[in-house]
Amino acid sequence: MKNADFVGQRLADLRRIVVKVGTNLLRGDQEGLNLDFMEELAVQIGQVRSRGIDVILVSSGSVSAGAHVLGFEEPPIDTNARQALAAVGQSRLMHHYKGVFKRHGIKVAQVLLTRNSMDDRKRYLNTRTTFETLLEWNVLPIVNENDTVAIEELTFGDNDQLSALIAAKVDAELLVLLTDVDGLYDRPPSEEGAQRVPVVRHSRDLPQVRYESPSSGTFSLGGMRSKLEAVRLATRTGILTFIGPGRLPGILTKVLDGEDVGTWCEANTRRIPARKRWLALGKRWGGAKIQIDGGAEEALLLAGKSLLPSGVVKVDQEFEAGDLVSVCCSTVEIARGLVRYSSGELDSVKGMKTSEITRILGKRQSYEVIHRDDMVLFHEGN
How far apart are CA 140 and CA 117, in angstroms? Predict the structure, then answer.
């Protein structure tokens, strides 16, 4: 059975996908890895590539592989210990990936990234160029977070959010999150009567989808919370997203054929330009927010205007000019952008007209709080 109409429409012109596989799928008794799953994954990715579709694989599993080598039966909680296990396991993981893909005539390349790789615009673009070159050479990029150097607050959460960032970076049309559950549910799957949610029409519906937190005794850092955040990141920038059972035979073929498996998450109908995707996903947001009134919201979303101080009602947290801030109306985030005032300056002139701002702060080269060119709107009309 085919899924919702929007799935088929978005898959019709598919040319590039990002596939993410989690730790629980890769764990096994063969040197700490599930080599049978890796072999089947290689077969399926080969089939996808035979359709003329580029594939980028985002893979977890290095910590689990390292734990097997060193005889760890339980996953350590300490970040330094996990980094050390990743250092041991990453080469083992790539060794087996190289072997299974070689048997199917596919060359692979290891790409290790940290959050800082995304934050700086120049490094972000350089990384994208590397991906484009590898794909042009018909090489499969296999991406993992560089766990050996990343510190705790810079981790991506079992690579879920990393996969969304990569999908935006390489202009993929589809993000596939393969996991050990059947998809999203309307309540924790352990509860009686839990039903799979086949389609999520908008990312704002995600809070209504319930999930279970991952067990503390796991090598995975993700769980469903991390996957939901990845869905939000991807769909708001125009990337169709799928969450589903990685062990289901032929799952990637079923995904490409739009079958009714897993959970499909609809994306914004209009793709966001590359620089604005970087603002939405690549550049790190420190948590600062600007609250605006309804008139400013309408001007931004419907008229395509820049944000002016007259529409600002509240400034949350400190920031400097040039920082990335969130723009909210009530409790809903409608945009992010590069601000042209410090938090102190903006707080002193919020709600004011240009003449009043000049009197308080002096004449400025620009009076916009955030120019429309430096802002990404989280709205279907963006």
Answer: 20
Top pLDDT among 133 and 29 is at 133
Give the torsion through C-alpha atoms of 247, 253, 257, 259, to 10 deg: -20
pLDDT, tens digit (0-9, with 9 covering 90-100), for 112-160? 887 666 666 677 778 889 999 999 999 999 998 765 555 443 355 558 8
**For the chain, where are the E strands, in sequence order?**
16-21, 27-30, 33, 54-59, 107-113, 139-145, 174-179, 199-200, 240-245, 263-265, 289-292, 312-316, 324-329, 332-338, 375-377
Task: Summarize pLDDT for 235-272 with one digit per residue, the tens.
Answer: 877 888 999 999 999 999 999 988 889 989 887 656 66
Residue 302 corresponds to which tokens in the numbers above?
């419907």
What pLDDT was estimated at residue 194? 81
Please, how many CA atoms are within 13 Å of residue 244, restricted to the half-sphere of its CB?
24
Pick the CATH number of 5-276 from 3.40.50.300, 2.60.40.10, 3.30.420.10, 3.40.1160.10: 3.40.1160.10
Which is it for the CA torsion 377, 378, 381, 382, positive or negative? positive
CA distance 139 to 352: 55
DSSP 204: G
pLDDT of residue 259: 87
Q: Where are the domains of the chain?
A: 5-276, 285-377
Secondary-structure class of domain 285-377 per CATH: mainly beta
Helix axes 79-102 and 35-50, enclosed angle (nearest 10): 60
SS3 for 272-339 is CCHHHHHHHHHCCCCCCEEEECHHHHHHHHCCCCCECHHHEEEEECCCCCCCEEEEEECCEEEEEEEC
- Give the dihedral sign, CA 109/279/314/226: negative
For 90-134, list the strands marked E by DSSP.
Answer: 107-113
